[in-house]
Write a structure and sequence with these properties.
mainly alpha, 4 helices, 76 residues, 74% helix, binds zinc ion, Arc Repressor Mutant, subunit A
Length: 76
């Protein structure tokens, strides 16, 4: 198993999708997602959401505000 836990993975999943993470963090998350039954479906959901938002924000990077709003939505 990897050293990061589910919470950390899900916190960083958008940075992961965005390609903002360093190589080590990227590999850790990738490994965790491959092994963790709990994070798998959540990651899939986030990935679809990310793709959707990205399509809507083609002119520039995804606004941090929008990200935070979506995260709050998902947590609630
Ligand atoms: Zn997990």
């Amino acid at each position: 198993m990897t050293e990061i836990d589910c919470e950390q993975v899900l916190e960083q999943v958008w940075s992961y999708l965005d390609g903002e993470l360093g190589e080590n963090a990227y590999i850790e998350i990738q490994a965790h997602l491959a092994e963790c039954a709990g994070c798998g479906p959540k990651y899939e959901f986030q990935r679809k959401l990310f793709t959707l938002v990205e399509q809507k924000c083609k002119e520039g990077p995804i606004p941090v505000e929008l990200k935070q709003r979506l995260f709050r939505l998902l947590e609630g």
